[in-house]
């Protein structure tokens, strides 16, 4: 089993994500510079957080148009796992890996704090280590993290079980007050791909993967991916 973490100019969560995968989860993980492309088939590719190309134009817009994305789109088509975290989520949506887009927060400032998420789907390759309804504590750090999509798209996401996470309060209530950035229906984790083999999310699971960081609730995302690969090859 081999993971890749793709580094773009301006990525800044690449090494944290590599640390969690390689040192905490113990899986072989390559840091791949975007210009090198994916030189081999990977079981899973992670697009890490950061400020690729300074968030110019729109966050993720420039990275989404680099040639390595063709390799990543091909990996997604082949059913391999793709996880986009924060700026990686923005890049993934810009590249069309999931419907909808991430735009300026409702209160248009950078927000960096812990939030709570409710797990909405516990059968996907990214969320099987949770139970539906679990409430997890995890950090966010973004300015362009408000998920928006047309009503018909949101309806399809709901109907097909493609909402992985919603912002909620400590008790798991999904309310406008527990929505830090104004995302539609508090959605912040979206499943894409024909077999839900793509997930993008604004919160940072790699920053919640060791108890010393205040929460290890995020590691179950990486563990779910590892279990899925072990079971499905
Ligand atoms: N932590 C990150 O990945 C930064 C997110 C992003 N570029 C934003 O501010 O919207």
From TrEMBL:
Primary subcellular site in the record, as a coarse category: cytoplasm
Compartment annotation: Cytoplasm
Claim: Transferase is one of the keywords in the record: no
Keyword Cytoplasm: yes
Domain of life: Archaea
Pathway the protein takes part in: Purine metabolism; IMP biosynthesis via de novo pathway; 5-amino-1-(5-phospho-D-ribosyl)imidazole from N(2)-formyl-N(1)-(5-phospho-D-ribosyl)glycinamide: step 1/2
UniProt keyword annotations, A-Z: ATP-binding, Cytoplasm, Glutamine amidotransferase, Hydrolase, Ligase, Nucleotide-binding, Purine biosynthesis
Catalytic activity: L-glutamine + H2O = L-glutamate + NH4(+); N(2)-formyl-N(1)-(5-phospho-beta-D-ribosyl)glycinamide + L-glutamine + ATP + H2O = 2-formamido-N(1)-(5-O-phospho-beta-D-ribosyl)acetamidine + L-glutamate + ADP + phosphate + H(+)
Active site: 86, 204, 206
CDD domains per the UniProt record, alphabetical: GATase1_FGAR_AT (cd01740)
Name of a matching Pfam family: GATase_5
GO molecular function term, any single one: phosphoribosylformylglycinamidine synthase activity
Quaternary organization: Part of the FGAM synthase complex composed of 1 PurL, 1 PurQ and 2 PurS subunits.
Function comment: Part of the phosphoribosylformylglycinamidine synthase complex involved in the purines biosynthetic pathway. Catalyzes the ATP-dependent conversion of formylglycinamide ribonucleotide (FGAR) and glutamine to yield formylglycinamidine ribonucleotide (FGAM) and glutamate. The FGAM synthase complex is composed of three subunits. PurQ produces an ammonia molecule by converting glutamine to glutamate. PurL transfers the ammonia molecule to FGAR to form FGAM in an ATP-dependent manner.
Protein name: Phosphoribosylformylglycinamidine synthase subunit PurQ
Name of the gene encoding the protein in the UniProt record: purQ
């Amino acid at each position: 089993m081999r993971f890749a973490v793709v580094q773009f100019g301006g990525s800044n969560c690449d090494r944290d994500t590599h640390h969690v995968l390689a040192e905490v989860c113990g899986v072989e993980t390559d840091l791949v510079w975007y210009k090198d492309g994916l030189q081999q088939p990977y079981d899973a590719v992670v697009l890490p957080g950061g400020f690729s190309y300074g968030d110019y134009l729109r966050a993720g817009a420039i990275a989404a148009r680099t040639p390595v994305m063709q390799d990543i789109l091909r990996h997604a088509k082949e059913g391999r796992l793709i996880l986009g975290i924060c700026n990686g989520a923005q890049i993934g949506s810009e590249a069309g890996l999931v419907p909808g887009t991430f735009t300026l927060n409702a209160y248009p400032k950078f927000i960096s704090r812990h939030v709570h998420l409710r797990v909405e789907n516990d059968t996907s390759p990214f969320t099987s280590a949770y139970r539906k309804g679990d409430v997890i504590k995890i950090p966010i750090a973004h300015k362009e993290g408000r998920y928006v999509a047309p009503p018909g798209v949101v309806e399809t996401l709901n109907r097909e079980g493609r909402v992985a996470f919603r912002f909620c309060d400590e008790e798991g209530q999904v309310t406008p007050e527990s929505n830090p950035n104004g995302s539609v229906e508090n959605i912040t984790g979206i499943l894409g791909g024909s077999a839900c083999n793509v997930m993008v999310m604004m919160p940072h699971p790699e920053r919640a993967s060791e108890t010393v960081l205040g929460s290890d609730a995020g590691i179950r995302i990486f563990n779910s991916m590892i279990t899925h690969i072990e079971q499905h090859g």
